Amino acid sequence: MAAVKLYPPRPEKVYLFGTCLIDMFYPEAGLDAIRLLEREGIEVIFPDDQTCCGQPAYTSGYHDEAREVARAQLGLFSEPWPIIVPSGSCGGMMRTHYPQLFAGSVDEALARDVAGRVFELTEFLVHVCHLPLEDRGEPEAVAMHTSCSARREMGLADTGPALLAKLGQVELVEQVRASECCGFGGTFAVRHPEVSAAMVEDKTQAIEATGAKRFVTSDCGCLMNIAGRFAHQGKDVKGEHIASYLWRRTS
Amino acid sequence: MSAVDDAVHTYTPREFHRQAHDALGNPQIRGNFRRAMDGLMAKRRGVFSDWDLETLRELGANIRLRALAKLPDLLEQLEANCQANGIQVHWASDGDEACRIIGEICQSHDARAVIKGKSMVSEEMHLNAHLERAGIEALESDLGEYLVQLNEQTPSHIIMPAIHLNTDEISEIMHTKTGTERTRDVDYMTAAARQQLRERFMAADVGVSGVNFAVAETGTLCLVENEGNGRMTTTVPPVHIAVTGIEKVVEQLRDVPPLYALLTRSATGQHVTTYFNMISGPRKSDEHDGPREVHLVLVDNGRSSIYQDDELLDTLRCIRCGACMNHCPVYTRVGGHTYGTTYPGPIGSILMPHMLGLEETKDLPTASSLCGACGEVCPVKIPIPDLLVRLRKESVGEGRGNVPGAGVKRSAKEVAAWKGFQWLATHPAAWRRSTALAGKLHKLVPSSLGPWTDHRTAPKPAKASLHALVKRYRRGEGES
Amino acid sequence: MSSRETILKRLRERSDGPLTAPASDFAVVTGRGWDASERLARFEQLIGSVHGEVMHTTQAGWTETLAKVLAAKGIARLALGREHPVAAEARRALADHSVELVDVDRDIEAWQREQFESVDAGLTSTRGGIAETGSLWLWPTSDEPRLISLVPPTHIAVLDADSIEDTFFDVVERNAWAQGMPTNALLISGPSKTADIEQTLAYGVHGPKALVVIVRHTGEVPA
């Protein structure tokens, strides 16, 4: 359980750390995050030299490599603005593991400073922006999968659902074992593909059983995994990053 | 009936993938574990609902850390107080030595029959096989352990050893091995086992039990149980041998109630177990029952190595409740035997590499999606996901080398892949060019995406990366 | 070097250096602040939830309740102590009763099979109860040995209502257990049970199938 975090007042500017998965596979979600923040009157800086938080190497045990990748990101946020990450997984890496990775090194203070300014997108929209949302979409049932990193590493089980609850026409449906992992786990899905497949199969069944034709998530790893499973089976259930979903229904 | 047919099958951590494949394809196993784990998770949630759980876990962690901080002193104090109470204390560096010590005690009493209470340490050191080689029969008396032993298997869960078997399978095992009627009547089967085991308690020369908490302050051995077989084992035979890992010691008697509260609630969702059995010595001269001799065997077996390292040390806080396996989505899918180790699930994956080495157990630290459920429920707040990552780090040779077999998974191919990743992710211009040509990037990602696409549609790299979209957006090119 | 010396040396010469012991705050396991009626209600609810049968009676008239329990359970042979007031009063009250009293102040070796096979119930005193978990605490003695609360199929325990305390921690602290532990100290919370066959609860696996707690009250007896 993450420690209680004190939230700052709404800033004039923020950084966006887009994450490598969004960069490569779901860039619209990154752009939609920017649009949501800008609509709140917040200027969004997207450092062009950002790449990846280093988590894939970190969880694989390659910490020397992860540290160098992380170090390349540490220098991108020189102004004291919040750093918004549209992913609990990358956000958790930066908030929790950057200080560990740089403990005892010259970059420790910088790593702690960066970690202290990291906010997951839905966390920031709820707790700092107090985001108002005017739903313009059709009535719809939607399921939400909160990533394990958002839920447990960052302690953000409620922020995604809180945002969906502001959409007047959207019914957030309950799934069985909502808090159970979808089986992505980064390289886990590659190293233990059969176990991972069994997990995502159960997750898609749980979502399908709600009757919702759409699910949203705040992490693109889970999105890739769950939506990929639905697509593989030819099932008519679509997944979307929550930033895109919120923007699409309110713009 | 595959779990029954599999009876003599032996499992090994080396074969994790094959064993996982078999378990995943076995609907009986999948169903048995899913039902059991769902039930255990719900019970745990219910039983902690009126507690300040975080404060209690904090206390549990503190008590265990305090005990570990003072471990050598507490072990000496435990030994002195046990001896003052009339308990004979033995020390064993590894499982073989512990087996030898127990074997010798048995032989000194011409013991032919040993009855056992539940002890995972005795499983860890393969005590039953050792005693049998010495011509001593070792019979498990915990109902689950008894059933598993009848079926020539090992436990698949540290608290509920027969959780992989369902009622029909158990009925079949009891029918085949003990001649009971085939039935779905659990009371009948329980009564039959009671009858069968009561004879064995009376006939046993020695009782062997584990220990849940050993109290240094008073020289007291605490045993937690529901069935009464633990009390039988430690009271009926003339000799009682308690065997425990050196980390099970706590400083004071007052440390016991919070740990006991955490243990039963975390393990089975019970407020309390039926029995909490605290033993502080053999039968005194004026007493009329209880063993005339009590022995305590303190087993190291890799624990003092774990103890050396500030981070790995947290592994030794464990009070063996099994909540981490109950909440593990991997354990729930593949079951306990798949791990091929005495302790399965998340705690096994952070403990067994120290006992068996990383060559043998290299697939265990990766057999986790790092979802964090284990760490979230651990009653003594062991950061299990962090320890899994630490062991991955040791496996690929980037740790401190404090685990046997460190570096075993380091391969030139993987190192090159991660160095490639590092190079790309630290050269932003190259990164942007690559994401623009995202298709080519797959070649730089370790391993193929092959297994991914057996079950899922492959994600398609976007035509334009976020970097490109943001630039376009800033230039006012608007909607992409 | 002996294994003992090797182990202790390795622990003492720890490569990452000595560890600091954190302080522990026990507030979470004490200070419940329940009054006598809350304690009793919790005790009864919890022990009842695991099949413990609770009977309320007066301090003076408890042996009549005992006689009723014996009759209801069809107990023909009852094992009990001699010196403890509970045993002494029971013996006096049951002197002319049809139940056969089995002496337990003899070494178990002399009567093990008898105890295992032809005793219907064991009667014991208790030292107290625990409200939070619905537990009894017993310190078996030469007068009331360890096995009479375990081997017979029914265990009848006599508990004074005012000896129920809030928590296990409170019991350990207020009764100064650490000053001197008996050979065997026990918490008992219900009859023996197992869930090892597919999570189905079954009672009486190795120990008693039934636990009857006769709660004695000095004041008003609850209904």
From TrEMBL, chain A:
- Outline the extent of the Cysteine-rich domain: 15-95, 142-226
Listed GO cellular component terms?
Answer: cytosol
InterPro entries in the record, alphabetically? Cys_rich_dom
GO MF, one term, reads: oxidoreductase activity
| Stored Pfam families | CCG
User: What PANTHER family does the record point to?
Assistant: LACTATE UTILIZATION PROTEIN A, UNCHARACTERIZED PROTEIN YKGE
Q: Know the name of this protein?
A: Oxidoreductase
Q: Which organism is it from?
A: Halomonas salipaludis
TrEMBL record, chain B:
Q: Does the keyword Chloroplast apply?
A: no
Q: Name one Pfam family in it.
A: LutB_C
4Fe-4S ferredoxin-type domain mapped to chain residues: 309-338
GO MF terms held by the record: 4 iron, 4 sulfur cluster binding; metal ion binding
Q: Which GO terms describe its biological process?
A: lactate metabolic process
The keyword Transport appears for this protein? yes
Which keywords accompany this UniProt record?
4Fe-4S, Electron transport, Iron, Iron-sulfur, Metal-binding, Repeat, Transport
Q: What is this protein called?
A: Iron-sulfur cluster-binding protein
Q: Which organism is it from?
A: Halomonas salipaludis
Q: What is the lineage of its organism?
A: Bacteria, Pseudomonadati, Pseudomonadota, Gammaproteobacteria, Oceanospirillales
UniProtKB/TrEMBL annotation, chain C:
Q: Which InterPro entries match?
A: FTHF_cligase-like_sf, LUD_dom, NagB/RpiA_transferase-like
Short name of one Pfam family: LUD_dom
Which stretch is the leader sequence?
none
Locate the LUD domain: which residues? 41-215
Under Gene3D superfamilies, the record lists: NagB/RpiA/CoA transferase-like
What is the name of this protein?
Lactate utilization protein
Question: What organism is listed for this UniProt entry?
Answer: Halomonas salipaludis
